[in-house]
Amino acid sequence: MAASNVSTNISNSILDAVGNTPMLEIEGIYCKCEFLNPSGSIKARIAKYMIERAEEEGLLKPGDTIVEATSGNTGNALSMVAAVKGYGMLVVMPEGMSGERLAISRAFGADVLLTGQFHVNAALEKARELGRREGYFNPGQFENEWNVEENRTWLGPEILAQLPEGKVPDALVMGVGTGGTLVGVGQAFREVNPGVKLFAMEPSESKTLLCGEIGEHLIEGISDGFVPGIFERHEGLVDVTLTAESGEAVEEMRRLAKRYGLFVGPSSGANLVTARKVKEAHPELETVVTLLCDEGEKYIQEHFAEPAEVRVGAEELS
Ligand code: PMP
Q1: In this structure, are 125 and 191 located in the same domain?
Q2: What positions carry a catalytic annotation?
Q3: Is any atom of ligand 1 closer than 6 Å to the C-beta of 221?
Q4: Quick one: which atom of ligand 1 is closest to the CA of 178?
Q5: What separation in Å is there between the alpha carbon of 310 and the centre of ligand 1?
Q6: How confident is the model over 106-122, as pLDDT tens digits?
Q7: The pLDDT of residue 93
Q8: Which parts of the chain have pLDDT scores under 50?
Q9: pLDDT, tens digit (0-9, with 9 covering 90-100), for 296-313
Q10: How many domains does the chain have?
């Protein structure tokens, strides 16, 4: 087999492997494979970007500790960045998030503080308070415009460069956690197609954006229990807000693994289900883009631990 595409660049930092993820076309939808980033999610990008911006601005100094409230993936990503760069790391997260995410941050050497149940509100307060103390830096992903800036200048242009020659995006479909991806990538898309439609998605069990409702759901990483500052500031950019049910998100997640070998989390399932609905309802939207945000390994205990059918013995096969 030819190895002509093998990169010969040798780096001494895993952070150089963030980004440049593959694009797949699955059932007519362009899917950006962000789950293949180091630390297993889309959040590797904002973690690297926000920390390097903070270093440039002199907000982070050697010996400092990064503190961030997160439902998991940003904590994993910042923990990785802190490990590489030698900062302390304190992840503040609610109870009830997947155990793997906690374990991954711990594996990167971070301390984890658990506050509150399921939603991130209590964790947010705590991280903000600690961030004001000497020697701590709180990136504040839900408010920080660097989150949007990363998506506008890095992830967005990368997606545009990967679309087939001559194609521009007609629609972007994305679940809202901080809103950074939808807003920042959306801004990049608007530059090449001012008419691109931006579809926000949230769980139907927790319609916070649509009507202020906060509920428990299984689509970890989105709908954290409040309207994030980023989304509020840029709400005018979004065309439509849609919902996905936890059940259909999980079902689609399982199908993606079995049918396409894509081992991803429930928000990826929810994104693809919703993108398909958008394309069915609006056939004029030819080039529809969505994202596969994190890896299935983070949900083994929650969703994949007990396969319905395990063939233990070989008797029936002999
Ligand atoms: N899916 C997953 C798995 C996530 O971790 C996140 C980020 N919390 C999102 C989707 C939403 O991304 P954003 O914060 O950019 O809205």
Answers
A1: no
A2: 43, 267
A3: yes
A4: 14
A5: 32
A6: 999 999 999 877 667 88
A7: 87
A8: none
A9: 999 999 899 875 566 666
A10: 2
